[in-house]
Design a protein that fits this description.
Strand order of the largest sheet: 2-3-1-4-8
Distance between the termini: 6 Å
Number of strands: 8
Structural class: alpha/beta
CATH superfamily: P-loop containing nucleotide triphosphate hydrolases
Helix content: 40-55%
Order of helices and strands: EHEHHHEHEHEEHEHHEH
Bound molecules: adenosine monophosphate
Strand content: 5-15%
CATH architecture: 3-Layer(aba) Sandwich
Number of helices: 10
CATH topology: Rossmann fold
Oligomer: single chain
């Protein structure tokens, strides 16, 4: 499986990627996660990326492409990958295309998780992550059940909000999506790779739609 999950922030790319990882056994490659890891470790790359991330802007293509090139070269990516949050603009899509061409492993499908702007806003403002285990919740739609969480993970949920999920940054991130990432819809339609999935449905239903969209394409 070599696919891209495309969609605005909050459309469910991370959640659906994790379900795909479990089912198909290929790694999720999330540039957002890789960047957050670099920021929390305080690496040089993290320091360079942080201000753009905090402002809801895209991190420089050179940084992101270097990171992706390195990640795709790791052995677990040889059997396939789910790209989550990458590419985010046309330049990144073109660079990805030539990288994969060089590996003789072209993309098989690009799945667009389609969702209304109002719903996106609510999903993003309500998103919280457990600081201990990384599980993601939404205080409006899927709040944690403390007893269940304790039984499953052995600790109480310790919820934190991503700095870029604060209301003042969300507007900017959605604006950046509209201006820079949305043009990829046309790009991948022209390439014959785009599959559109309605993301305003329960998690399992969205997952089934993704499977129906990609299974005819994947090796
Ligand atoms: P995400 O977790 O995918 O929403 O990404 C969080 C932030 O990381 C974004 O708002 C950007 O600042 C940065 N980022 C993630 N992926 C990319 C990318 N492909 N290109 C540039 N910046 C990115």
């Amino acid at each position: 499986m070599r696919i891209v999950l495309l969609g605005a922030p909050g459309s469910g790319k991370g959640t659906q990627s994790q379900l795909l990882v479990k089912t198909y056994g290929v790694p999720q490659i999330s540039t957002g996660d890789l960047l957050r890891e670099a920021v929390s470790k305080g690496t040089e790359l993290g320091v360079r990326a942080k201000s753009a991330m905090d402002a809801g802007k895209l991190v420089d293509d050179v940084i992101v492409l270097g990171m992706i090139r390195e990640r795709l070269a790791q052995s677990d990516a040889a059997k396939g990958f789910i790209l989550d949050g990458f590419p985010r603009n046309i330049a990144q899509a073109e660079a990805l295309e030539s990288m994969l061409l060089g590996l003789s492993k072209p993309l098989e499908a690009v799945v667009l998780l389609n969702l209304d702007l109002g719903i996106l806003f609510k999903r993003l403002t309500g998103r919280r992550t457990c600081q201990v285990c990384g599980q993601v919740f939404n205080i409006f739609t899927s709040p944690p059940d403390t007893a269940a969480h304790r039984a499953k993970c052995g600790h109480d949920p310790v919820l934190i909000q991503r700095p870029d999920d604060k209301e003042e940054v969300i507007g900017k991130r959605l604006e950046v999506y509209d201006a820079q990432t949305k043009p990829l819809i046309k790009y991948y339609t022209t390439a014959g790779l785009l599959r559109v999935v309605d993301a305003d449905a329960p998690m399992a239903t969205v997952f089934e739609s993704i499977q129906r969209a990609v299974e005819p394409q994947i090796a």
